[in-house]
Each structure stands twice: as C-alpha cells, then as structure tokens.
From TrEMBL:
GO terms for biological process: base-excision repair. InterPro entries: AP_endonuc_2, AP_endonuc_F2_Zn_BS, Xyl_isomerase-like_sf, Xyl_isomerase-like_TIM-brl. Residues 40-302 form the Xylose isomerase-like TIM barrel domain. One of its GO terms (molecular function) is lyase activity. Residues 314-370 are annotated as: Disordered. It comes from the Eukaryota. CDD domains: AP2Ec (cd00019). This is Apurinic-apyrimidinic endonuclease 1.
Length: 370
C-alpha cells in the first residue's frame, strides 16, 4: 500500500498511515482527561476518532477544566488532527429530543446544548447524535418536527458545530429509514450545520444489504437520491451480530458477523469521493483486556483490505478464518431471529383477526339498529 509521511514514536503501537484516502479511526477512551483521547487515537494509528465528551450514562458532569481544553488543542496540533474535520464525538445515550414528554425532552435539550458547547470549547466541528424515539404510540411526524425545532434552536445558541444525525437499526426509532433523516434536514434552517453519519451495522439491521458490490452500489445510490452525498459527514464501520432486517443494534467485530469481511473489503476499495476526508469510525466490541488496542488491529485490517480483490487467495483465507470464528454466535443469533419472526407473524395474525371481529361486530350492530 502506498504510504508517505509515516511517523512512529516509541509510545506508538500502530503506525499511522496518513496518505490513505479513507480516514479510518475508532471510538477511543478519555480516561484520565479528554486530552488523552488524542494520544490514544494516535497510538493505535487513527486518522480520525470519536470519544464521549462526558460520561454517556449520566445527565450531569463537571465542566471541562481550562488546562484540559488547552492540552487537548495542543495534542491535536502535535499529532496532526484537525478537530474541525477529524473528530466526531458521540452524544450521550440519554438524549432523546423526540420524546413526547415535555419535561424529558427539555432535559435532553439541556445536556445536548452542554455537549455542543463542550465541542466548541475544544474547537471540534462535528457532533454525532442519535435522532431519538417518539416512544410507543407516539406521533412519528410530530417527533421529526420536534427534533428539527431543537436543532434549529441549538444552532442559534452555538456558533459553528455541525449536528451529524446517525441512521438507526430499530424500526421503532427515528432514523431507521433514510427518509426520516431527509425529512429532518428539510426542516433545518441552516443546512450547512447538519449532516448524516451512516452506521453499517444499523443499516444492515434496518434492511439495507451491504454484502455485495451490487447491493452496496444500490444502497449508496439510494442514499444520494434520498439525502445527498453533500450531507455525508461520518461513517461508523461495524459488523452486525444480527441478521439482515433484525432491527437490532448489535455491533460485531469486523468479519465475524452477518455482514462478513467481504462487506468491508468492498468499503475499503470504494472510489466514492464522498468517503474521503470524513471520519470513518470503528465502534466494534472490545476484546477483553485489550481496550483501544484492538481497534489498532482492525484499522490495520481495513488498510490491508485496500487493494485486495475478492478472488485474492490471502483475502479468501482470511475471510474464511473470520467467518469460522464467528459462526457459533451467528447460529445463535439466527435462532433468536427466527423465533422473533414467528412471534411477529403470530402477533400480526392475531391483530388482523381482532380487526376483522371488530368490523363484523360493527356491521352486526348497525344491522340490528336498522
């Protein structure tokens, strides 16, 4: 693989190749201070990275210390990361701006705004957000409008950070269909400050097949038609523990899941200009006791896949080895999925019978009265 401007330091365990057109990276730890995210990313060979701005499972967090902010900026300069383009922090899990409960969505907005202000204090230009859910029985269209209104509001309270909406896996949340994200974007006043992050696991679980060159071309063509490449601001690369259309957000290590290594070989060799110079982030499960370092191995795997064809003997051997390693878990997930499908079919049939009885009862009542 062609590579220039390679820089290695003693503390660095994985070489960072900065001339690859695709900016592969990972979600890294901030343990010990947010400035450590930069060195953690550098040490595992990231060309882009993600992190949490505060504890993702708590509403409140102490403000960032001025010295940590300064150190973060210094590390970005030292290790040649552009925080406006190369970093895509992940929003807190609790944030749900579509929640129909007024107290709940106002609380979400406060922590959302706090996250964005943290981004801007660090000089970070993009922020990844799960669109949220209207909850069971909620009004989907109303939820989309509410989300858009909060994004318009937060744009007025911040200066430059872009909200990057992520597509989702489950059919009961906003963003499972690309059309949801399109509809929200259409309602945003400042469209220069909104974008989309495509997660490969979420896409596959939502029913978008990415396992062949033909299906990938179809998906990305659909994305361009529905949303447009100009809004593509990040990608999360994850295999899927769940089968196609499982609607389950279950990330898997590359090559072990139902997407398989071929899907990532296709991605690593894609010529789309839209993929270049945006964060391409791994969020695969940690290998026990290894932490961020396992991402270094997967980044090297992605770089190795660049230039490989599907009939390359080395690739075919590696693909089979990965597939074998994940076969037991795929089998277990397949059985769970089959049971879920049977239950769904039974529930659908039961609901249809109930509707039929209700209609018949209404007709009988009408005839008796008349």
């Amino acid at each position: 693989m062609p590579a220039t401007n390679r820089i290695m330091k003693e503390s660095q365990k994985f070489e960072r190749i900065v001339t690859n057109g695709l900016k592969f990276g990972a979600h890294v730890s901030t343990t010990g201070g947010i400035s450590n995210a930069v060195t953690n990313a550098y040490n595992i060979g990231c060309n882009s990275f993600a992190m949490f701005l505060k504890n993702p499972r708590r509403w409140d967090a102490a403000a960032l210390k001025p010295e940590e902010i300064e150190k973060f900026k210094e590390n970005c300069k030292k290790y040649n990361y552009d925080p406006l383009k190369d970093i895509l922090p992940h929003g807190q899990y609790f944030i749900n701006l579509c929640n129909p409960n007024s107290e709940a969505h106002e609380k979400s907005y406060r922590t959302f705004l706090d996250d964005l202000k943290r981004c801007e204090s660090l000089g970070i230009g993009n922020y990844n957000l799960h669109p949220g859910s209207v909850l069971k029985g909620g009004d989907h269209e109303k939820g989309l409008k509410q989300l858009a209104s909060y994004i318009n509001k937060v744009h007025k309270e911040t200066e430059f950070v872009k909200i990057v909406l992520e597509n989702m896996a489950s059919d009961n949340v906003v963003g499972c269909k690309l059309e949801d994200l399109r509809d929200v974007i259409e309602m945003i006043e400042d469209k220069s400050r909104v974008g989309v992050c495509i997660d490969t696991c979420h896409s596959f679980a939502a029913g978008y097949d990415l396992r062949t060159e033909e299906s990938c071309k179809e998906f990305w063509g659909h994305f361009d038609e529905v949303i447009g490449y100009k809004y593509l601001s990040g990608i999360h690369l994850n295999d899927s523990k769940g089968p196609l259309l499982s609607n389950r957000d279950l990330h898997q290590n590359l090559g072990l899941g139902f997407l398989g290594l071929e899907a990532f070989r296709i991605f690593a060799n894609n010529k789309l200009d839209a993929f270049k110079n945006i964060p391409i982030i791994l969020e695969t499960p940690y290998n026990t006791g290894v932490g961020d370092e396992h991402y270094g191995e997967e980044i090297k795997l992605l770089e190795w896949l660049n230039g490989k064809t599907n009939d390359d003997e080395e690739f075919k051997e590696k693909e089979q080895n990965f597939s074998n390693k994940g076969s037991q878990e795929r089998s277990e997930q397949s059985k769970k999925f089959e049971k879920k499908q049977v239950k769904r079919a039974a529930d659908k049939e039961k609901a249809a019978k109930g509707t039929k009885r209700a209609k018949k009862g209404g007709i009988d009542s009408f005839l008796k009265k008349n």
